[in-house]
Design a protein that fits this description.
Layout lengths: L14 E5 L2 E5 L19 H13 L3 H10 L2 H5 L1 E6 L2 E6 L7 E2 H8 L10 H20 L5 E2 L20 E3 L4 H18 L7 H16 L23 H4 L25 E2 H21 L3 H21 L1 E4 L3 E4 L2 E2 L5 E2 L23 H10 L7 E3 L4 E3 L8 E2 L1 H9 L4 H13 L10 E3 L2 E6 L4 H17 L6
Helix pairs in contact: 1-2, 2-14, 4-5, 4-6, 4-14, 5-6, 5-7, 6-9, 9-10, 12-13, 12-14
Amino acid sequence: MQRRTFIKNMGLVSGALYVGDILAYTPGPTFKDVRTPLAERHFTSPAIEQAILEFSKKVKNKELAWLFGNCLPNTLDTTVNFTLKNGKEDTYVITGDIDAMWLRDSTAQVWPYLPFMKKDSKLRQLIAGVINRQTAYILQDPYANAFYNDPNKLGKWKDDITDMQPGIHERKWEIDSLCYPIRLAYHYWKETGDTRCFDQDWVGSIKAILKTFREQQRKENLGPYRFQRNTFWATDGIPLEGYGYPVKPVGLICSMFRPSDDATIFPFLIPSNFFAVVSLKQASEMIKSINKDHTTADELMALALEVEQALQKHAVVHHAAFGDIYAYEVNGFGSYNLMDDANVPSLLALPYLDAVRVDDPIYQNTRRFVLSESNPFYFDGSAGKGIGSPHTGFDRIWPIALVAQGLTSQDDDEIRFCIKTLQNTHAGTGFMHESFHKDDPSEFTRSWFAWANTIFAELLWKVYQNNPKLLS
């Protein structure tokens, strides 16, 4: 699927227009109208439009208002396909410039909309549809990370050496792919009290997650998953016949790929194991309260506690300059990888995922490490400084990492710096990107990456509500 051309020099006068029952903000003459035209939008939420109008009226920085108006609705405008299937809500969410639905990205893309559901029943239905679609995908293959809308489609990676099925875009095993759907389901339930999504199919998906996590603890054998790809990109394949480098079974869960879709070096990926602890506890609470399945709830909690205890023993290493910090990856034998990757879950984003307290001393030490040049993927240039990823190579900073830095900061100057850097590096497009060059924001990757847009808007909305002076 190709992205529409959004850039139009319309020169509209700043204000609000009523189109039917939709209140629509239009940018002032200084900024181009780059948002998808109303008639071409995939989904429109009055609650989101009202938030855009409120932000534009109250925030004096008109460029931030313009960016917020473009980025907050980008997932709704361009990536969602909502229908009713057998009487149930069903929502397919592409990631942007790739016509496939990632379990991770689809959750993150709609996450900022959760607080608005009470004001917009159709938006609530849309998000319920995401939960239902994710449930179906997990039941199809809990080891896959991305899927097609067409269940018969054979995609680019159909020749990967793994148990590939039609309808699957990619089968890279990532712990966070199974955590994000639980995160969405849990907070949807907490926001709405609606339990209709959490039927026996959903229970089956939770049991599949539990089974998969246990398999990837690799206590008895390597498990059923292996993955190889015919490619010259080292980060796209798994060594040793597709099982990865050895681990010592210590209770942690193996993740063969990072959230960036790059292969891990040591399979015990620490941020994702922290995320798994949170998700298992949330699933346990839901299964017990909604489905009255105390046996499964107890099994989920037992695994959560086991992984949590293993993290306490194996995730912390001592750094000569920063003290005790969390490693990015370990193998249980004593080897570890000290770095952080831009994509979430990351070490930097752990408080955002409710995995650690923001004032946890080890987290604070880790934060100082990952936001320094001691992190091999921290880049500092004339256009900005922040965390990048092997996925995009040297000298490229990710807006998602800058947003994570702002969302987890307790320092006003740091939050202001993150926002200002993001404001200055959209390269005139009005949208965020996957990455930009540290010295030249016009050198960016992925012009249509909806997650980067909505999480940036999430940061702006949080700051607007809690500390609006930082937006001046």
